[in-house]
Design goal:
CATH superfamily: Response regulator
Structural class: alpha/beta
Oligomer: single chain
Shape: globular
Length: 135
Amino acid sequence: MGKLILLIDDDKLPMLYYVKALEEMDFKVKQCYDPDSAIEFAKSHGSNIAAILLDVMMPPGKAYRNVNTNEGLRTGVFLFDDLRKHCPRVPVVVLTNVRNPETLSSFKEGALLKIAQKTDWPPFELTELVQEMLK
């Protein structure tokens, strides 16, 4: 298996298509379905993670139960900040259905951060984006 991709999204079934596409391109994928498991994985495996795919809308879990996540609509914003502590130079693709400009403005796109709307990025195209970011 190839490089390790951390995929964080609470929608299990739709993400299977992304996992399959990534694995077909020889990536190893670790799926986390909540912020708590994602933070723990990043703490223990941060140096092995090549890229992160991060959803924005998900339940806050224990990590953000006392934070205003707008009922989970902004959980990924807080999770992104915590992931950066453990994986500061790892490319991140915010893979989301969120179109709210205020929420998306929390993410500053650049060489290590891209925002990809799920409806606009089918699995194999997203895999190509990840490969490009890893070059």
